[in-house]
Amino acid sequence: MSTYTIKDDGDDWYHDLTAVANRQKAEKVLKAAGFEHGLFLVRESTSAEGDFVLSVVNAEEVIHYQIRRHGEDAIFSLNDERYVVQGLEEVIFYYWKNPNSGLQHPLTKFVRGKLCPLHARLHGTENLLHRATAANNVGIVQELLHSGYQNITAKNNQGQSAVHIASAKGYLPILRLLIANGAHLESTDSSGYTPLHLACETVQSDIVRALLEGRANPTTRNEKTGWSPLHVAAFHGRLDAVNILLEFGAPSQPRALNNCTPADMANRRGHPAIARVLSANDFKLKPRSSSGRWLHPPISRDKANELLKANATEDGTFLIRKSTKREGVHVLSMFHDWQYLHYEIMKQGMFYFMEEGPFLISLEHFVDHYSKFKDGLRCELSNPVQPEPPSIPVPAPRVCPGIF
């Protein structure tokens, strides 16, 4: 069995389940190929759908690294590393170029299999659906989709799907056909943009609305800049797009990686009307949730876990508690996939926020937002755990003197 280097021979290091079904088979294939230090292959994971596994020879053993998919698009990281890469081929190339970035060994040669699957790639190749969409040929697109065309989610060499192309060019009939046939709306191109980001660059309010009605997520951020679709609309002065995004529940103050909000961008770019709309939106929205259903006094993490365990009927069961260690800080405690997760809720001025999430005007608005969108959480909040009623002290019985 022949081996090849990444530098000279590309990226056909992928082996599907028909070729390498599990780790035992992977080890047999690596042994048959010479079992030299740094020899590797990539295979599909059998334990987590959508994940892959990097199997590498290290001295006289094989190490198997889980390549975890983040969300539904081709965004991956090795094990639980914080370095997140778009495109499976980019993950492998990164660790080949940077052997001291988390692996115990270099990647030297690979066992040749197949090319990395299109749905997992950053860059693909242009296909007939891409060309028909770019030409606004509704007839050919319709014929392809009705005939069961399999490459509806495939990307071209710019990392764009047919939905990206239709959204950027404003081809509404084609976009509706793609959505009706199950096209993926959260796919990101090589610049990190979803179709909704691209639609917000131009005056395409009907495209923005069609994507949102098709369940596109208005909170999805560009992994490279942190920009949400609302940042894009504010930057380009697209007031119609801003209003539609807010109508569909987009938070008015998402934060880019530099902490800049859409209102900040609108002011800097000379769009004061958009800045006013965004600033006023927070005060127009009345919260649907009530803090009496989920806000707890200062309790420990162990006590929070105990309450979640007793009340967790589904993923998303949650409570918010005051921190016992940090003044003015709250903690979101939630249950997901048999794990208890805890996130600090910080406050800046009058706004609450968590990690890279948006600024929100109250804890009630915070719960409303994360009940509708994951926005960085493992799942949406769904089942609140009510605080325990305060105990009422019972007075000691009075003893009257002289009575026996």
UniProtKB/TrEMBL annotation:
The keyword Ribonucleoprotein does not apply. ANK repeats lie at residues 158-190, 191-223, 225-250. Residues 13-111, 294-385 form the SH2 domain. Pfam families: Ank (PF00023), Ank_2 (PF12796), SH2 (PF00017). InterPro entries: Ank_Repeat/CDKN_Inhibitor, Ankyrin_rpt, Ankyrin_rpt-contain_sf, SH2, SH2_dom_sf. Coiled coil: none annotated. Keywords: ANK repeat, Repeat, SH2 domain. This is SH2 domain-containing protein. It comes from Tigriopus californicus (Marine copepod).
